[in-house]
TrEMBL record:
It comes from Chamaesiphon polymorphus CCALA 037. GO terms for molecular function: Glc3Man9GlcNAc2 oligosaccharide glucosidase activity. GO terms for biological process: oligosaccharide metabolic process. Residues 715-803 form the Glycosyl hydrolase family 63 C-terminal domain. It comes from the Bacteria. The lineage of its organism: Bacteria, Bacillati, Cyanobacteriota, Cyanophyceae, Gomontiellales. SUPFAM superfamilies: Six-hairpin glycosidases (SSF48208). This is Glucosidase. Residues 440-544 form the Mannosylglycerate hydrolase MGH1-like glycoside hydrolase domain. Gene3D superfamilies: 1.50.10.10. Pfam families: Glyco_hydro_63, MGH1-like_GH.
Length: 920
């Protein structure tokens, strides 16, 4: 038995409640302004109602944002940095970006910041912000992007020239936990330029404003107060009614500034302020010289220490702070004595920081102990770090949001008929994994499922909680629907929750030897309600063909699937139906696992097996006329448009819609069937008696490799024909993964005409050139990690059944024949090489951005974008979408672990994907 690493011990202590190691973490949002939660406008114009410009002056209702900061797990007390270079019109307290209406390709953060390291308990964290010497070009970024069309690239911060000649500061922020409630903070500033520059560095401590709403009593207001000031040490005492007392120890000579985290009503609403000290008081003091803007009594609910640093070219300045539950006397400080040892709070600071760094290295070496290049380890480590930094405190009580608060003007009546009005039960007060804490600072159900796969490799408890909590009654709708995302909780995303639940269960079983059936059963019970919702709401004609709606793929189709069709009628969705086939198989797999301990679940497994048969049959034979989503001539699946007069037409778009049927595949192991005789009996009855249903359930009767049985919508012959297109480099198979739409449509756009209008699908490898279906709709050619990951898994499953004898040409036309396992490996390698240096030393993710490719202070910093250019692999969209793009960390782990040793790979994979026939 290998001794656990210190980080693994902390995880265990957290799980058993021996120590609350997760209380403090990177739970601040990167953007609270412009969110639905803070929107009290009549018609849901969130971006325009609460702007970046108002954020420094107006108190938030539902959360806080900050720059590379931390908070406790209920976001009562927050700690972050603020910066001022002497040129900017405002303090740099939060990240700036364009709103959805301002960007020529939708919303977009316009800053450079990097999440470099983090551990699951946040015992060690490190991040970097690059701050220009010159005035930040806020207006220029807005104006230039507003001028550009959708056919032009975005105008980025580097394009302004503000980083030319390295005229910027690198600001590194590190956190290390001495104990669960004792957090060390080190800020390291490096002047990268050739001239001496002055920087105001302001570590800032504040309470989230919880006292201004719903008539909260005055005595519940927390307080921050200076209890010691000197040239060597400043101490701020924080007192909160539920968090208790904390002390911030700040080393060095900095001026203490105090104000209140209260709205500046005079500026925002043109009404008198109840207090002269408001949220933007520190900004007004430092930037504008308004001496009366801060409280001379050094008390308030927001405080900062203003360090004025004069930094020579290439020099480094370091500031150390400590946020602790230890009273000064416990650190050997006698505040009443004459001989104060001001260095006492920092005696072990450097040693603790170094130890936590080393422990982080040990932990990640344990996670991936295989032979990897230094570059692969760097990419994987930053991917894990980005996912952990993108945890956020998410608070939203929809009923209170709809009704408004007693102490402020009531919301307009229109909101009672607007967004999320049917979700009045939703009550969130949790640490959740965000897609991107600036671009998407809210949970999204189908994104979260993919996050959990990667999280499971480093923190299975957190992964399980994420999946569990979304099915709880304060999230899931009473009708069984899982909330999609805050802009529209009632939207429809692909049903991948069961898949993620099963995968997390199996990953934990493999890595940690734990089979958490309680978790599996709890989520499964709620997912049965969700499955029923899908069947009742999305199968309009009761023929097991689904009209899912949005399905998260935005503009991949001809029409907006969230809106009524311009033709009337409905669409039989190849992808919607395939997602449901996959859902059935995931639920079947979970039910079979639970049935091993409770035979009642055999009946439920049978139910999902039968339902899967109906869906699989319907994919190929629908109704009396036996219309099909499968086109035999093209060898591909398409959506079918139904007109009100019962006419039907195939919409021949070569897209992921035709590849998603590959996801509905599962293997039944002989050992499982032997353990569950009742289920086996029912299965064999179907094989014998229901020829009409089993005709399109691939290979059910055939004993495959290892005497397994295969359940798949796609038969062996169909699989071969689909892969011919999927692996064609002139169609789907790019150097960087599978494109969302075939490149065939670059020269052959699909056009549909109705009511004098043209609807079309072109191949667009990067951002969409139109605002169709929303400004961030980009599924017409780019590479997306989540669907590529599912394709890899599906290929691996097919290989487990078909074995090495089944080979396909990869790439199509190359003459090279590969097994499906080798195809999956090739796809994994193409995806990972997006981030890795190629032989020319370039990272495809950064395209032609020279500074990221060649500058030694930039080239090893990795951003994990939302999606990637279908032809050159350049990152596009949200730049910190580590959530599902963080799957690259899992792919790197698999590539390192399995390599090309197929036998080893398969034995491990069987445990992860479902089989227990081989124990490793």
């Amino acid at each position: 038995m290998v001794d656990p690493t210190p980080e693994e011990i902390r995880l265990h202590e957290s799980q058993t409640h021996a120590a609350h190691w997760r209380r403090w973490g990177p739970y601040l949002s990167d953007r609270q302004w412009g969110t639905v939660r803070e929107d009290y406008s009549p018609y849901g114009s969130a971006w325009d109602y609460f702007t970046h410009d108002r954020a420094r002056s107006r108190a938030y209702r539902w959360g806080e944002d900050g720059l590379l900061g931390i908070s406790d797990n209920h976001q009562r007390l927050c700690l972050a940095i603020a910066l001022w270079n002497g040129e900017d019109p405002i303090l740099k307290e939060r990240l700036f970006g364009l709103t959805g209406n301002e960007g020529n390709h939708g919303e977009d953060v316009k800053e450079y910041y990097f999440y470099l390291d983090n551990t699951p308990t946040h015992s060690y964290m490190k991040a970097l912000y690059k701050y220009p010497h010159q005035a930040f070009p806020y207006d220029r970024l807005v104006a230039e992007n507003g001028r550009r069309s959708r056919r032009e690239p975005e105008f980025e911060l580097l394009d302004t020239g503000i980083f030319d000649d390295d005229r910027y500061f690198d600001v590194f922020v590190e956190y290390a936990k001495e104990t669960a409630d004792d957090v060390l903070m080190q800020i390291t500033v490096i002047n990268r330029g050739t001239e001496a520059r002055t920087l105001h560095l302001l570590p800032t401590l504040w309470f989230r404003n919880t006292w201004a709403w719903n008539g909260a009593e005055e005595e519940t207001t927390p307080t921050l107060q200076a209890i010691h000031t000197s040239n060597d040490l400043n101490i701020i005492e924080a007192i909160h009614p539920t968090l208790g007392k904390r002390w911030l120890y700040a080393r060095g000579d900095g001026e203490l500034l105090f104000t209140e985290n209260e709205t500046n009503y005079e500026l925002v609403f043109d009404t008198p302020n109840p207090s002269p000290y408001v949220k933007d008081g520190i900004n007004n003091y430092v930037v504008n010289g308004a001496k009366a803007a801060v409280n001379p009594d050094l008390i308030g609910t927001k405080a900062a220490i203003d360090y004025v640093l004069s930094i020579e070219p290439g020099d480094t300045h370091t500031i150390q702070l400590r946020l602790s539950d230890l009273h000064p006397s416990e650190l050997g400080l006698d505040l009443l004595g004459d001989d104060l040892n001001s260095s006492a709070p920092f005696q072990n600071f450097d040693a603790t920081l170094a130890i936590r760094q080393q422990e982080a290295d040990e932990f990640y070496q344990r996670v991936t102990p295989f032979s990897l290049s230094e570059d692969m380890r760097n990419v994987q480590r930053q991917a894990f770090a980005g996912m952990l930094w993108c945890k956020q405190y998410y608070h939203y009580i929809v009923e209170d949001w709809l009704q408004g608060d007693a102490n402020v003007p009531m919301p307009p009546p229109e909101r009672k008929r607007g967004r999320n009005r049917a979700w009045f039960h939703l009550y969130t007060d949790d640490i959740l994994s965000m897609c991107d804490k600036w671009e998407y600072p809210w949970f999204a159900a189908w994104d979260l499922a993919f996050h959990c796969i990667t999280f499971a490799t480093i923190d299975s408890d957190f992964a399980k909680y994420q999946l569990d909590v979304l099915t709880r009654e304060w999230y899931m709708h009473p009708n069984g629907q899982i909330p999609a995302y805050e802009w529209a909780f009632g939207d429809v995303n692909p049903p991948v929750h069961a898949w993620a639940t099963w995968r997390v269960y199996k990953i934990e079983q493999k890595l940690y030897g734990k089979s958490d059936r309680q978790f599996l059963e709890r989520v499964f019970q709620k997912l049965m309600l969700n499955f029923t919702w899908w069947v009742n709401r999305k199968d309009t004609e009761g023929n097991n063909v689904f009209q899912g709606g949005f399905l998260g793929l935005d503009n991949i189709g001809v029409f907006d699937r969230s809106a009524p069709l311009p033709t009337g009628g409905h669409i039989d969705q190849s992808d919607g139906t395939s997602w449901m086939g996959m859902y059935c198989l995931n639920m079947l797999e979970i039910a079979l696992e639970l049935a091993k301990a409770n035979p009642v679940y055999e009946d439920i497994a049978t139910k999902f097996f039968e339902h899967y048969l109906y869906i699989a049959d319907a994919m190929n034979h629908i109704g009396e006329m036996e219309d099909s989503l499968w086109n035999e001539e093209d060898g591909f699946y398409y959506d079918v448009l139904h007109f009100p007069d019962d006419r039907q037409i195939e919409m021949k778009v070569r897209s992921l819609v035709g590849l998603i049927p590959l996801f509905a595949v599962e293997i039944l192991e002989p050992e499982t069937l032997q353990q569950l005789p009742n289920f086996k009996k029912r299965l064999e009855w179907f094989i014998k008696n229901r020829h009409d249903l089993r005709r399109n359930v691939a290979c059910m009767e055939t004993k495959g490799k290892g005497a397994r049985r295969l359940l798949a919508i796609v038969s062996k012959d169909k699989l071969q024909r689909i892969l011919q297109k999927m692996l064609d480099e002139s169609e789907f198979f790019s150097d960087y993964g599978i494109r969302a739409v075939s490149r065939y449509h670059a020269k052959h756009p699909y056009c549909f005409y109705t009511n004098g209008m043209e609807f079309r699908v072109d191949y667009e490898p990067a951002e969409s050139t139109s605002g169709l279906f929303g400004g961030n709709s980009n599924w017409r050619g780019p590479v997306w990690f989540p669907v590529n990951f599912l394709l890899i898994e599906s290929l691996q499953k097919f290989h487990r059944y078909l074995g090495d004898d089944f080979k396909v040409e990869c790439p199509t036309g190359s003459g090279q024949m590969l097994t499906l396992w080798e195809v999956a490996t090739e796809l994994s390698q193409r995806l990972t090489q997006i981030f890795l240096r190629n032989p020319a030393g370039q990272r495809p993710v950064y395209g032609g951005t020279e500074k990221f490719q060649t500058d030694p202070h930039w080239r090893d910093l990795v951003l994990f974008y939302e999606y990637f250019h279908g032809d050159n692999g350049a990152g596009i969209g949200a730049s910190h979408q580590t959530g599902w793009t963080g799957l690259v960390a899992k792919l790197i782990q698999q590539l390192g672990e399995y390599g090309d040793e197929e036998g080893v790979t398969e034995s491990v994979l069987e445990i992860e994907l479902g089989s227990e026939s081989i124990v490793v």
